[in-house]
Amino acid sequence: MEVQKKIRSSNTPYFFSKDMIITKKSLNENQLKFTYQKQLISDLDNKHKEWSKSINSKF
Fold first, then answer.
1. How far apart (Å, rounded) are the C-alpha atoms in residues 56 and 30?
2. What is the SS3 assignment for 33?
3. Is-above-0.85 flag for pTM?
């Protein structure tokens, strides 16, 4: 109870919305999209490093 009072008395906003409901399926789909995007960025970063090495070796 005391913790609840401290949280309510603070001026920090809720980290969730009481009006919004996200299904487990939607949450899982978004997680998969995020993981896929993160992998694409990582792959792009690795390709960029390879390209820069090849360009630097030519000069």
1. 39
2. helix
3. no
